[in-house]
Amino acid sequence: MSTSGLPDLVRDLPHLRALVESWHRAGLRVGVVPTMGALHQGHLSLVRRAAAETDRVIVTIFVNPRQFNSAADLAAYPRTEEADRLKLDGQGATLIYAPDGDTIYPPGFATTVSVEGLSEGLCGAYRPGHFAGMATVVTKLFTQTQADLAYFGEKDFQQLKIVQRLAVDLDLSITVIGCPTLREADGLAMSSRNVRLSSEARAIAPVLYAELQYLAGKLAEGRRMADVVDAAKRLIVAGGYQAVEYLELRAEADLAPLDTPLVPARLLVAAWLDGTRLIDNIAVPSLV
Ligand code: PAF
User: Which CATH number fits domain 192-283: 3.30.450.20, 3.30.1300.10, 2.40.50.140, 1.10.287.180?
Assistant: First the structure.
């Protein structure tokens, strides 16, 4: 079993279980980085963090059909398993767990994990069923891997909050760690969807982060969200985006809607560019 170099590939659940049990018997801590493949530097930073904090790192690769809102989006999702394995070379991943569909959803599968409250609004309002599909597969990946720590990017901030909630609510013995968003040099948040952008759209894409920073500055000056949000949405569209789905200020702790950052907060946005839906968020410090 490699702890450096190219990770081994495991598809089979009994094999995975036997390995993890042997690691736990040896007193080793196991980290997991759940992914849908199409790995980029953001994923690799999660893997490196997991490798720094645990003894064995499992990277899961499973393109989860239950969290896609359209068959076309699922079909278009990049599947690059061999390239992903090569990208993991030397990053500290011990193994890739890439189960097939039946290993995650055996015939007759009838259980859904649904996290109320946190799953509503923001992306939840525009992607019906997405978070239930995501929460269900993440629960399966946690119980299948039996990992002690899990690493998620803050770019999908609502997802991170939902996963932290479900782990606590279901008494899963796993700690879910949120890791900072990795950005391209021009500020665009790294995402597997960025490869879908044309070169023209790629040049426009950083407008989203620039607007988040500008808006965060206005809020820090004491401006209310209600007074500045419409102008910020207009600027995103003027910058070349087709449409803004949402641009909201939410409390970091429970995603409660806010007008001013009187508690640690996040500005969260989803917008369409070149037929691709991009999301991003930034932290807004509390004014008090
Ligand atoms: O963020 C993702 O890539 C997915 O939502 C996850 C967490 C791997 C579940 O399919």
Answer: 3.30.1300.10
